[in-house]
Write a structure and sequence with these properties.
The chain is mostly helical and 161 residues long. The chain is 78% helix and 0% strand. The protein contains six helices and no strands. The protein is elongated and about 110 Å long.
């Protein structure tokens, strides 16, 4: 709360209220003049911001030739059964996407660890197991990296049927 010091005569006359109103009116006039001096050029020139975007859209609509507008084709009515079938199929098609993304991201580090383990098998004299581990790690890595492509091919085949 702000404390204000008044002269006794101003308080008794009530002139302090008039001075406060005049001061507030001056502040409002200054604010309005500043706001209008900023807003009017932005609105008229299509400046950056929401007003500029609205004005740009209004200008574009004003300059559009209405005879050049193409008629819009009406939508094909779809029953609830067909719509629900499409929505279910779409949801099922994308259910495994996060799992596939995680597997693709983890396949390189896991294949690297398996190959390092296979190198230890070579060091310990078990070269056949080392070669089979390298072969299995490489094949697994390639199949996991190609799995999104395989899933997309299966989706396209399912959509074509």
């Amino acid at each position: 709360m702000k404390t204000q010091t008044l002269r006794f005569n101003d308080f008794m006359d009530g002139t302090y209220k008039i001075k406060g109103k005049l001061r507030k009116q001056k502040i409002v006039k200054k604010s309005v003049s500043v706001a209008s001096s900023i807003a009017i050029p932005i609105a008229l020139t299509g400046g950056i911001g929401a007003i500029g975007l609205v004005m740009t859209g209004v200008k574009a609509l004003a300059t559009t030739n209405t005879s050049a507008i193409m008629p819009v084709a009406s939508a094909v009515p779809v029953g609830a059964k067909e719509w629900m079938g499409e929505q279910t199929l779409s949801a099922l098609a994308h259910v495994l996407d996060p799992v596939v993304d995680i597997l693709v991201a983890l396949s390189f580090p896991i294949a690297s660890v398996v190959i390092v383990g296979a190198c230890f098998m070579f060091m310990f004299g078990n070269s056949e197991k080392g070669w089979s581990m390298i072969q299995n790690a490489g094949l697994g890595y390639v199949l996991i990296q190609v799995s999104p492509l395989i899933l997309n091919v299966l989706k396209q085949v399912g959509n074509a049927v």
